[in-house]
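Suppose a classmate hands you a notebook page containing two proteins, each written out with its sequence and a corresponding row of structure tokens. How would you begin to make sense of it? This section walks through that situation. The first entry is reproduced here exactly as it would appear on such a page.
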Amino acid sequence: MAFDGITVANIVRDIKKELTGGRIYKIAQTEKDELLITVRKAVENGGGQRRLFMSSDASLPLVYMTDENKQSPMTAPNFCMLLRKHIQNGKIIDVFQPEFERIIRIEIEHLDEMGDLRHKTLLMELMGKYSNIIFVDEDNKIIDSIKHIPSSVSSVREVLPGRDYFVPVTQDKLNPLKVTKDEFMSLVPSKGQPVFKALYESFTGLSPVVSREICYRADIDSDKSAIALENDECVRLWDAFDKVMTGIRNDEFAPELIYINDKPKEYAAIPLTMYHEGADSSYKEYEEISTLLLDFYSEKNTVTRIRQKSSDLRKLVATALERNIRTLDLQTNQLRDTEKKDKYRIYGELLTVYGYSAEPDATSITVNDYNTGKDVKITLDPTLTIAQNAKKYFDKYTKMKRTAEALEIQMKEVSETVSHLESIAASLDIARQEEDLTDIRRELVEGGYIKGNAADRINGKGKNGKNNRGRNSKSKPFHYISSDGFHIYVGKNNYQNDELTFKMANGGDWWFHAKGIPGSHVVLITEGKEVPDRTFEEAASLAAYYSKGKEQDKVEIDYLKRKDVKKPGGAKPGFVVYYTNYSMVIGTDISALKEID
């Protein structure tokens, strides 16, 4: 399902064919990471209007042409205003894909304020969590971007106004459209990994599904180690690979959407023949990749709709989180003020022992602290006796001690609330269905964040106060199949996390969670079988991907047998404890995993 280089090549061909020569009529920023550009097409391309949709959403980067409109905010964001200033009414003169990367360059001519002809480029980078929409000038200087990437986020490439634009590093991958047979035959068979993985990790723009399709066409097991390929298999693999690339070079695309059990599962800009004979699979051919993408994502994803419907919840959680973090900071400062309490206790003890040596009406006394061997000067109230001064210091100590004890209890509660709210925020980020939001709303009600009539409506209570529906979650966890055939489940919210961990999983199954940060519970179902290392790593990658550390390159993951995961009595949904575990540091790439319903 990846928006790979072949899909980009197909959409670039279509955009180039239909929109080149057209004028940019309207520019709207429909979401913080989306653009919708309306183009008046050139007469030679049929005239009329067509819209170009571009999304740099980290979880769902997309580009396609559409006739549909989307609602825009009342006030346009700064990036949108900048584009309107420079390229509204500009002419699209070229569209191309550099080096088969997941990048689209749209070259635009426009007149500046002085009436001089200028050249600008709008770039769409479709690179997962690094996706971006970047606007550059004639000198390849970044004017602005829809996402700013400072050096603190990426040490490799800053994306900021005034910086030089350059294509991101491709990790020494080769352009598959330019590779020779000799290069292919020496590179791929040298990889000690499955053939399909050797393909997409050796060449830019290849996705796992297309790599498996190439293996299928070559009649080779895609999971076979590349280093174990026989010479005739290498030749067949090259022939299948070269045939696909020749078709792309000739702009021969055949977009296809694959259905499994009547549900859309995969797509590609080339036929996925490996699915054509399956008993539970079917496929639909498209003339235009944009139509396929619109169909696929309207059926497969409700991200935009869910994002809109969850905006009130996001605001509520963010407000509550900010309030509790502020409370925690205040309590931390108050606790810091009590750190000198032991000094007052020692003063009281020293006055009790050495106070007899104080001069009458003295305002201070210097005594030797038997704890440290150093002299200590103690301030005295001359209106009080030594015993009363000692009691005064003991009272200060006692008061601060009680304050510290109370603060520690309160801080523990507030810290747990912060963690709970962060976990709810993470659940909102991965919600896909109305049922997911229903679970989250109910959790917010039970946590006391939503009250009154709104709480009654969410709980399904009628006027008589009785429940009109059960509390069981109707949403389902994410379900994946590992490369070795093991079932892996991922909780979407805290209710699901509890149900997954303590009801669905058995004691002998494996449990995964990102260390020390909010994230989903991930359960690997073993069915009593020995689990290969590869499956352990894939389950850990899911725990990393569905965590607050998703944007990091690597995340530390704890994993252990489910029987060793415990839930304290009275704990909030999703909260567990464990004391013995293994750990691994893993990346967040889950592209090789297959998600099923």
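The notebook's second entry, a different protein, reads as follows.
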Amino acid sequence: MTKKYAFWVEAAAWAATCVATLLLLAKLIAWWLTGSVSVLASFVDSLLDLLASVTNLLVVRYAVQPADSEHSFGHGKAESLAALAQSTFIIGSASFLLLSGLERLFKPVPIAAPELGIMVSVGATVITLGLVLFQKWVIRKTASPAIAADALHYQSDLLMNVAIIIALGLSWYGWTQADAWFAIAISLFILSQALKMAYEAIQSLLDRQLPLEEQEKIAVLSSSVVGVHGIHQLRTRQAGMTKFIQLHIELDDELPLVDAHTIADEVEDRLLVAFPGADVIIHQDPKSVVPKEAKA
């Protein structure tokens, strides 16, 4: 776990927490003054965002700690746990929003001071856009699943804020049900995204293999080293930013142990160039035992 990774992941988590706190206060005031169910939904979403971001911050601070005697593979899986927890927060938020929208659809209520709600939503959109752009930049640098999950919150918020602006504008001109319809549409979109995020987090916790193209790259790089006749039993996974790669390389039966070790080091070096920071374990097999291992 590199210091740069830890710095940027923690910075993104702190930024999300500060933004969530600011938006929560602004939306609480806007809902109190307007009575809009869309603004209420946005407030509840921001409340859950704040809880999720605080949870994310605490988990990320733990996840970036280096490996220790009790966790020799590091703490990277804590990020996937955070992503799963956040998806649960989002599903709860979206469900509340859906129920509120359905209730308001059948019991429309005129919105007070829609212009105030519009002003708050415009401000929230600008602030949230800045945060999302920063998070996207951090994700490109780190590939952190926890920050990717947090970014989903705020991308959903962007959509929600734009929808609220439109809904309040339509309500201003007399279409009172617009508020409810937009709340329902937003909730369904958020639910679909949250379910996808939960699935990805669960797959990571279950040690899903790296993507097929990365496995093929590992095989090509390993087999390209002089002295390697092939590879087998390739196993991969990822926890946080760390990729774990285990494989067996096939070598000449009579090869001296020192030479076998040198070849294995060359394979490891090539893999680390392609996958910086990876944890690589290489087992050296004589060619003659490969058929027996294949039958095992």
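A careful reader of the second entry would note: The chain is about 70% helix and 10% strand.
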